[in-house]
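Pasting as-is:
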Amino acid sequence: MSELLNRAKHNQDVLRQQRAKLFIAFDIYKSNVKYGLITETDESHQRIASWYLLALDLDYNAITNYPHELDRYL
């Protein structure tokens, strides 16, 4: 685990910074889904939507274990 993420467990500002990067990637991902450039299954949609709601609440596990679909947009 990186030092930054280890410190994030105890610092909400660090979590917010990491979450901001993930949300930018998420916005690109969902736009690509909306325009039909990529497709997602019902299962992946539910998983990503659940992740998003947890990340909104600054859930440490959600922020550190984000959906792999976002990797290409980070």
